[in-house]
Amino acid sequence: MAKVGKTLFVCQNCGASAPRWTGKCSNCGEWNTLVEELSASPAPGSGLTAGRKGSAVALESLKGDTVETPRMQTGIIELDRVTGGGVVPGSALLIGGEPGIGKSTLLLQVAAAIAAKGGRATYFSGEEATAQVRLRAERLQLAEAPVELAAETNLANILATLRDGPPADLIIVDSIQTLWADALDAAPGTVSQVRAATQSLIRHAKVSGSALILVGHVTKEGSLAGPKVIEHMVDTVLYFEGERGHAFRLLRTIKNRFGPTNEIGVFEMATKGLREVSNPSELFLGDRDAKAPGAAVFAGMEGTRPLLVEIQALVAPSPLGTPRRAVIGWDSNRLSMLLAVLDARCGVSLAQCDVYLNVAGGLKITEPAADLAAAAALLSSFSGVPLSPDRVFFGEISLSGAVRAAAHSTARLKEADKLGFAKAVIPAAGEIDAKANDLEIDRIGHLKQLAETLSPCQ
Ligand code: TYD
Ligand code: MG
Q1: Hey, which of 55, 126, 268, 421 would disulfide with 416, CB 3.0 to 4.6 Å?
Q2: For a substitution probing ligand 1, which of 103, 104, 105 has the most ligand atoms within 8 Å of its CB?
Q3: Beta-carbon-side half-sphere exposure of residue 133 (alpha carbons within 13 Å)
Q4: What CATH number did the domain enclosing 373 receive?
């Protein structure tokens, strides 16, 4: 047991500490996140303990020998893509996501893939008993893979196990919130425990050259420490997300010291585990009813990947004084902006109508280039004129109603061409490579041009 200092109140959201309990954290402004913890004495070797003098280190210039980052390919192409070519030995990766989204499933598949290639993969499960993990392995038909498995939550035991034998190529800890260090009095899942466990595991990974993958829960109530604190400590942060009612799952890079961010990996949760989806557009356009008014296909981008998705709108006369506006999968502020632009710049007023907007498949779109497709869907539903099903849209709309150029036009058009679309409505501005596809391209400079072709009661 380490020497125990005074009592501190630590915010479970941001990690800030305060001497007194308050309802609201003064650092991040979250409510009810302060938890009492006993502050332990400084970590040994941190230089803060009495009697230890530091020694000077050699300072170097920026120029010098560099080596290319070594990579260990997992064999799961979508994961290799989001990490920038495979996990880096000696690095730490955090996968965050809501409970039940499929983190344990994904990591068991990764461990099995590494083990099948002859690597040493060690899986520490803190949440489930070994029998449960075995059941999952059977379901995934991976029971034969030589993965080393243990159900353990004590940090010291985990580190001792790791030091025993040759270094592992891959270490998985599921989840970091369940670990506890003897030296700390705080409960598992509190910021100090999570921080201490992460630090020790990262140090081990650096020394042994093992790739470390940590699972972190994201909870709304914050009863467990959100992985925000560890996001700063690890090299790569991935988020695994998806809608409960939908089978697809997205793996998104939030931070990556060894590669690009904003990449996505797409998986489908099937009965035998996660299946990689190499052509996500087909998944999102799968079962659309192209004849109904109010549906427009958006040629979007996710990272460096083009992704076609249907945007659906329903505009109906409202019996209410304040009509309803509901959006799923898109920003509601952008919808308000779009409605205002349609009203002020194009003379199309939806003020007396309820407006519903939905992105098909449960995908969330954050790109401003979706404006034009959303506007097309709204206008089509309002006028009752279906859009021709072989058309795609993209372009950002400014407050003046002008359609602004979007990045990666060529890649978007190529994807639309590949999936059998014949026409594209795109911004007038911006360079495109006309020879790269066979689409009939309609370039518009102002939203009015679209509104005129889709005016009501035609
Ligand atoms: P899990 O990996 O346990 O989620 P997490 O670790 O993120 O909490 O996966 C949970 C869900 O996935 C569970 O509700 C069942 C479903 N699932 C399948 O649909 N197919 C499968 O093959 C597996 C293993 C799980
Ligand atoms: Mg799990």
Answers
A1: 421
A2: 105
A3: 27
A4: 3.30.230.10
Both tokens of 432, joined, read 């495109």
Residues of the chain with pLDDT under 50: 1-4, 45-47, 222-224, 457-458
Burial (CB count <10 Å: 0-12, 13-18, 19+), residue 18 = middle
155 and 127 assigned to the same domain: yes
Q: Give the Å distance between the CA of 116 and the centre of ligand 2.
A: 22
Pocket test for ligand 1, best of 140, 241, 269, 271 (most atoms within 8 A of CB): 269
Q: pLDDT tens digit string along 79-117?
A: 999 999 999 999 999 998 888 899 999 999 999 999 999
Domain CATH number, residue 237? 3.40.50.300
The residue segments making up the domain with residue 28 are: 7-38
- Measured distance CA(348)–CA(376) in Å, rounded: 12
Structural domain contains residue 161 = yes
Distance of CA 235 to the CA centre of its chain: 15
pLDDT, tens digit, 9 for 90 and up, residues 192-223: 888 899 999 999 999 999 999 999 887 655 44
Run of H or E residues at 54: none
- Looking at 277, 299, 332, which one is the last position of a domain? 277
